[in-house]
Amino acid sequence: QVHLVESGGGLVQAGGSLRLSCAASGLTFSFYAMGWFRQASGKEREFVATISRSGGTIYYADDSVRGRFTISRDNAKNTVYLQMDSLKPEDTSVYYCAGRIGGTSTSLREYEYWGQGTQVTVSS
Q1: How many CB atoms neighbour CB 115 within 10 A?
Q2: How far is the C-alpha of 59 from the C-alpha of 49, rounded, in Å?
Q3: CA-to-CA distance for 111 and 27, rounded, in angstroms?
Q4: Residue 4 CB neighbour total at 10 angstroms
Q5: How far apart are CA 36 and CA 61, in angstroms?
Q6: Nearest-CA neighbor of 32 among 118, 112, 108, 117?
Q7: Three-class SS of residue 48?
């Protein structure tokens, strides 16, 4: 049974940093591209970042996160990370990690496995 478990969320002031982790089990992690998505209250879930199986290919949503967020992975630890710096109140969301076998994708519909999410709240 596949499990993706996010951690590292919390309450932080604007300008602060958080590092999210997503630990995977029940799958061959190195076979899966991984992604981070977020969903703010009352809004649709949206793409944040994705990383290929080897970590050699990375995409970010757009300029709203590029340059502030960094996705990475450690295949030896079956874990994907999202380092979030210079956080803004508009980054407040539930953050989800997801996995899909094969290559990267920015579409949430193409991910087979999802974590339960971790809340990130950025105060102004």
Answers
A1: 22
A2: 6
A3: 14
A4: 24
A5: 10
A6: 112
A7: strand
Smallest CA-to-CA distance from 68 within 120, 3, 4, 5 is with 120
Residue pair 76/89 in contact (Cβ under 8 Å)? The answer is no
DSSP one-letter code for 114: E
3-state SS, residue 30: helix
Q: Which residue type occupies 105?
A: S
Q: How many CB atoms lie within 10 A of CB 49?
A: 23
pLDDT score, position 81: 98
Question: Do the Cβ atoms of 72 and 51 come closer than 8 Å?
Answer: yes
82: its two tokens: 């999202």
Residue 111: beta bridge partners? none
* Average pLDDT along the chain, 124 residues, taken 10 residues at a time: 97 98 97 98 97 97 92 98 98 98 96 98 97
Query: What pLDDT was estimated at residue 32?
Result: 98
**3-class SS of residue 28:** coil
Whether 2 and 24 have beta carbons less than 8 Å apart is answered as yes
